[in-house]
Each structure stands twice: as C-alpha cells, then as structure tokens.
Amino acid sequence: MGCRYAPSVPKQEPTHAPPHEPGRESVPPGRGRPEAKPVHRDLRLAVDRASPVPLYFQLARQLEAAIEEGALAPGRLLGNEIELAARLGLSRPTVRQAIQSLVDKGLLVRRRGVGTQVVHSHVARPLELSSLYDDLLAAGRRPSTRVLANARGPAPAAVAAALGLPESCQVAVVHRLRLTHGEPMAYLCNYLPCDLLEPATGELETNGLYALMRHHGITLHSAEQTVGARAATAEESRLLAEPPGAALLTMQRTTYDDRGRAIEFGSHLYRASRYTFEFRLLVRA
Q1: Do domains 39-118 and 123-278 have the same CATH topology?
Q2: pLDDT tens for residues 6-60?
Q3: Under 8 Å CB-to-CB from 179, ≥6 apart: which residues?
Q4: Domain spans, the chain
Q5: Out of 56, 59, 179, 252, which residue is the most buried by the measure of CB atoms under 10 Å away?
Q6: How does 39-48 read in b/e, with b if 16+ C-beta sit within 10 Å?
Q7: How far apart are CA 210 and CA 132, in angstroms?
C-alpha cells in the first residue's frame, strides 16, 4: 500500500514578457505557442477594500477555495498576474504576494516558460466514522476508485485477530486506489468476513465501502483506529505517484456494527503531501 509525495519545486520568480526592447521582435497574436484562456476569468473574484483583512490575503483565500472546490483543477494555468491585477484593481505586488502564499503552501507552482500552475488541493479529513469516498463526495471532490484486487484470501494473523476469526480463515480482500480529480490520494486495503459481504468490483468502482455496507443492511456503530506514519516503498510510490521514501500517513481501523461484531479491518496509506487528519480535542472533566 502507499501514498505518494509530490516533489517540492524550487521557488522561481514569475516569468513575464519583458517590455519591448529595440532589436527584439514581439510575437504577433496568433503566432507561436497558443495562449490558453486564463482560468481566473471563469472565477468570481472580488476584494473588499473596507475590510481590515489584507487585500493579498483576501485574494489568496478565494484562489485557495477555488482549488479546494475543484474550480481550479490540477494542471490548469492560473493566467497572467498583470491581467489579474488589472481585473481586480490591485497592484501587481499585491497579486504576486497572494500567489506566492499559495506557492509556499504547495497549491501553485511557477514553472519557467509555462506560468503559474495549479499543483493539487490538500484534503483535510476529520476523524470520524466515515469513508474517504463519502468525505470526498461531500466536499465536491469528484472521487473515483481503481480496484486493484477483489477476491477471497486467507486472513493474516493480525487481521484474523482484529475480526475475531480463526487464523487463515477466508475473508474478502479488497485493494483499491482512491483518486480525486484523477490524482491518486490513498491506497486502501480492506478485509471483510465472507459471510457478511463480498462486494462486486463494479460496486466498489462506483461507491464507497461504507455506503455498500449500509445498502446491504449493515449498521455501522463504532471503530477503533490508529494513525501513524512511515516511508513509502518503491511499489507504494509507483501507485501513488510519490518518490521512493516519501512520507506516508498510515491508518488502521477495525469497524463494528450495532451488535458489537467486527465487520471490517482496514489498513490504509495516504499521501502526506496531499492529506491530513483533523482532530477535535476536549478537556477531560
């Protein structure tokens, strides 16, 4: 299993066409590399000059929200910052500061000869009894699933113990790659008692596992979960498009139904470069 880390990109100053100089010919419209329509033209952007919030921060937050919601998809070019500044009536340094703040967060990257490009959006997931598929769907992230394996197999000792089954008992073994906007996000391995549920591959490709459980009349009640971290193996890196040795978040979960029966054991890996777990902590009385 694995999660991939996106290699860090050195910060570069934005490259814009210099003013016309004698002896340097400009490229007439319609010649050379075609220019894509700047994606910021499709966004509803506005700043409130009466607000105490700095203008660069207002713009940065709106662009970040567009990335998180998928309006600015990975790989898209943001467009010329001079044009964006003119559109909003902002100074070029203000727009540059907003863009740089998103470059520093890893949401944008400046590529020489290309421009400012959307890299990815980071998923922050609350720790509760829900599936990654449902969470991504609720956030408007267009989740998709690639089923890598779906068959019966002997339960490893740790899985059998978690599910309360005899060692080497046959269980349903499901390996999936979860993607959002076509980009790998997590590698999921799940083990289910065969007498409980053996989901079809087609069902797994279009639904979250917990949604399938509910559809088959299984009531989710509670879970025990452990979160950790480790380095990616070569195979995990390949699956999740991360370099070997990249940081991965790990999660192991045993889920119980309303009768107290263990109904699922999951061992998942998430890309630390794309994913975080959120905790809500309360003071013990």
Answers
A1: no
A2: 444 444 444 444 444 443 333 333 333 334 455 556 678 888 888 888 999 999 8
A3: 143, 144, 145, 146, 185
A4: 39-118, 123-278
A5: 59
A6: bbeebeeebe
A7: 9
Q: 2 is written with which tokens?
A: 């694995």
Superfamily of domain 123-278: Chorismate lyase-like (3.40.1410.10)
CATH topology assigned to domain 39-118: Arc Repressor Mutant, subunit A (1.10.10)
Bridge partners of 248, per DSSP, are 230, 271
Task: Write out 212-232 in H/E/C secondary structure.
Answer: HHHHCCCCEEEEEEEEEEEEC
Whole-model pTM? 0.56
Centroid of chain to Cα 206: 18
User: Using CA atoms, how far apart are residues 162 and 58, in angstroms rounded to an integer?
Assistant: 48
267 token code pair: 């061992």
Whole-number Å distance between alpha carbons of 95 and 185:
30
Q: Going by C-beta distance under 8 Å and a sequence separation of 6 or more, which residues neighbour residue 17?
A: 26
Q: Are 255 and 262 in contact (CB under 8 A)?
A: yes
Q: Which amino acid is at 206?
A: T
